[in-house]
Design brief:
Blueprint lengths: L2 E6 L5 H10 L7 E8 L2 E8 L2 H7 L20 E7 L14 E2 L5 E9 L2 H10 L11 H10 L4 H11 L2 E9 L6 E6 L4 E5 L2 E5 L11 E4 L4 E6 L2 E6 L4 E2 L4 E2 L4 H5 L6 H7 L1 H9 L14 H4 L2 H6 L2 E6 L1 H18 L3 E5 H4 L10 E6 L6 H12 L3 E6 L5 H4 L3 E4 L12 H21 L4 H36 L5 E5 L4 H15 L3 E5 L16 E6 L5 H13 L3 E7 L3 H5 L3 E5 L7 H19 L18
Parallel strand pairs: 16-17, 16-18, 18-19, 19-20, 21-22, 21-23, 23-24, 24-25
Antiparallel strand pairs: 1-4, 1-10, 2-3, 2-4, 5-6, 6-7, 7-8, 8-12, 9-10, 9-11, 11-15, 12-13, 13-14
Helix pairs in contact: 4-5, 8-15, 8-16, 11-15, 11-17, 15-16, 16-20, 17-20
This protein binds fructose -6-phosphate (F6R).
Length: 622
């Protein structure tokens, strides 16, 4: 998740921009840059790696270094800054933002993905534009250049109309030393208004040290900011009236984006994080593009795969389980799941036609790394699915697919889980595409459904919380929670129960619903909340019979159902509904109420959800 910060005002802004970027570091990044406009000229400094490298590149923190860009006389009072999390194009200084147009008059920073970048690049190139990076973002600078005839806002509006995807961007022009223009489509964008100065950012913490007056920009809107002012218009240029708000967060709340905890903040980031994970990989409507992965795992190798083995621990293991169902369903390759700490001690049989997928958000979990190494030593190809660039997993694998969840500070995995699930879906569809196991129509339909997931995740988070809180209020003093599901609903039960144990310390178990009658049914009485995953699927009727068995024992059934499914309503005591999607994709929505349930139960019990007892974020000790 990239970070944007912009400033226009009366103060020299180099340090304001870098300080703002520092507050956005939690979003994760691999390079950073700033552009400053002074004396009719824009100077840019970009650096690969962390902000220390950017600070060094502008001459900060270096003995006697004044900073080439920043001290250009007169000091710039308008500028843009960016932290980049690579999507299109490698991690290089050239691909870092800000990006300029052909004449370097327009500079932009962008968060998100421009889906139609290839068509636009081809068209702009044929019109004579020269590109200097491999990014989708640079297209925006050239589009603004193309449409510009003196009015920056009008040029941004026209460029905005040409773009498809999910993004937010901010632009400046050498002819307009008092104006920044920004636009939002799905990715967050917020304006901070101070005395004779205005900020633009992806998140409030970027400017909170400077001003507490914030103005939210909505989807499809364009904002033109000048010192101390902001004019919002819709995509057609009609003025939009919007009141600014005072942000009342203290420093600690600011770090948590105004949420009470990192965990809740990270749950709220899921739409954005999943969008980042999938978007550029689904830019075509008929195939999945896994970029660098495709260099190591060639079509010939993919055609030869006899078996996939997934190794992972904890929440990552549950993401793998969802992936198993999706891969088998779509790509018809047999998939085995292994808990990484078990795999390496059972002398596994490995063949060169095995693809082993190691899932580890941190990329540093000792058991998962050991399993990946063992598989590789024994001749399998290994694909790492991780969230952390430069982590050990990236070095122990033949190919790496990154989730792009940004940093996850809460110990309990939430947004990294949904991004892992999304990435497993991508792998499933990619394999199906290469192995020809889905018809073109079905593949296109699933890709379209995948693209809608970030919206649906947002819709779910917005709609379920009150109901979930009601359940938490009623059950938080309970002695035991049971989670039941079948097929692709089962991994979500395992994840829900893990979250409940890990942050609420309430004993909980997850069972394949069909197994309940073989023992666990003895646990049920009228004090046991039973959470059932009853989203649409070919075996929903089977799940419904299991729910009847539960109710017959007097236990309360809390069903997670697809919106509008009457039969589930009739068979449960309380229903929490999630939007409809393809049944294989339902888990990524169904897990959201379960994360929230564990969260609210823990909060009602007064527990520290960000740092559960006895747990650390990464388990690296053998
Ligand atoms: C649970 C949780 C853990 C991790 C597990 C693996 O919320 O965070 O179960 O999923 O320790 O960690 P990674 O994915 O870093 O290998």
């Amino acid at each position: 998740m990239c970070g944007i910060v912009g400033y226009v005002g009366r103060r020299p802004c180099r340090d304001l921009l870098i300080n703002g970027l520092q507050k956005l570091e939690y979003r994760g990044y691999d390079s950073a840059g700033i552009s400053l406009l002074a004396d009719g000229r824009i100077d840019t400094v970009r650096a690969v790696g962390n902000l220390a490298n950017l600070r060094a590149a502008v001459g900060l923190d270096v003995e006697g270094g004044d900073g080439a860009v920043a001290v250009a006389a007169p000091p710039a009072t308008i500028g843009l800054g960016h932290t980049r999390w690579a999507t299109h194009g490698r991690v290089t200084e050239q691909n870092a933002h800000p990006h300029g147009d052909c004449s370097d008059d327009v500079h932009i920073v962008l968060n998100g993905i421009v889906e139609n970048h290839s068509e636009l690049r081809a068209q702009l190139t044929s019109e004579g534009h020269i590109f200097s990076s491999e990014t989708d973002a640079e297209i925006v600078a050239h589009l603004i250049e193309k449409h510009y005839s003196g009015d920056l806002t009008a040029a941004v509006r026209q460029a905005f109309a040409d773009l498809r995807g999910h993004y937010a961007f901010a632009a400046m022009h050498a002819d307009h030393p008092d104006t920044l223009v920004a636009a939002r489509q799905e990715c967050p964008l917020i304006v901070g208004i101070g005395a004779e100065e205005t900020f633009i950012a992806s998140a409030i913490p970027a400017f909170l040290a400077e001003t507490r007056i914030a103005l939210a920009i909505e989807n499809g809107e364009i904002v033109t900011v000048t010192p101390g002012e902001a004019q919002v218009t819709d995509a057609e240029g009609n003025p939009v009236e919007r009141e600014s708000d005072e942000v009342l967060w203290d420093d600690e709340a600011a770090e948590k984006g105004g949420y009470a905890t990192f965990m809740r903040k990270e749950m709220a980031e899921q739409p954005d994080a999943v969008a980042e994970t999938i978007a550029d990989r689904l830019s075509a409507s008929d195939r999945v593009d896994l970029g660098q992965v495709e260099a190591a795992l060639t079509p010939e190798f993919v055609a030869s795969i006899d078996r996939i083995v997934i190794v992972a621990c904890g929440t990552s293991y549950h993401a793998g389980l969802v992936g198993r169902y999706a891969i088998e369903q779509w790509a018809r390759v047999p998939v085995e799941m292994d808990i990484a700490s078990e795999y390496r001690y059972r002398d596994p049989v490995v063949s060169p036609n095995d693809l082993v997928i190691g899932i580890t958000q941190s990329g540093e979990t000792a058991d998962t790394l050991a399993a990946m190494r063992l598989a590789r030593e024994r001749g399998a190809k290994v694909l790492a699915l991780t969230n952390i660039m430069g982590s050990q997993a990236t070095r122990d694998a033949d190919a790496v697919l990154f989730t792009r969840a940004g940093l996850e500070i809460g110990v309990a995995a939430t947004k990294t889980f949904t991004c892992q699930v999304a990435a497993m879906y991508l792998i499933g569809l990619w394999l199906a595409g290469l192995r020809g196991t889905l018809s073109d129509d079905r593949l296109a339909e699933l890709i379209a459904e995948m693209k809608a997931l970030p919206h649906k995740i947002q819709e779910t988070l917005d709609s379920v919380e009150d109901r979930v809180k009601a359940v938490a209020r009623a059950e938080h003093r309970g002695r035991f929670f049971l989670y039941l599901g079948r097929n692709i609903g089962l991994p979500i039960c395992l994840e829900g129960a893990l979250k409940m144990k890990e942050i609420s310390y309430i004993p909980s178990d997850a069972y394949a619903a069909g197994e309940m009658k073989h023992g666990p049914i003895a646990l049920l009485d009228d004090s046991t909340p039973v959470v059932c995953i009853a989203t649409d699927s070919p075996i929903l009727d089977k799940v419904l019979s299991n729910m009847e068995e539960v109710r017959a024992r007097g236990a309360d059934v809390i069903a997670i159902a697809t919106h509008g499914q009457e039969k589930v309503r009739d068979a449960s005591d309380l229903v929490i509904e999630v939007p409809a999607t393809d049944w294989v994709l339902q888990p990524i929505l169904a897990v959201l109420p379960l994360q929230l349930l564990a969260y609210h139960v823990a909060r009602m019990l007064g527990l520290n959800v960000d740092q559960p007892r006895n747990l650390a974020k990464t388990v690296t000790v053998e």
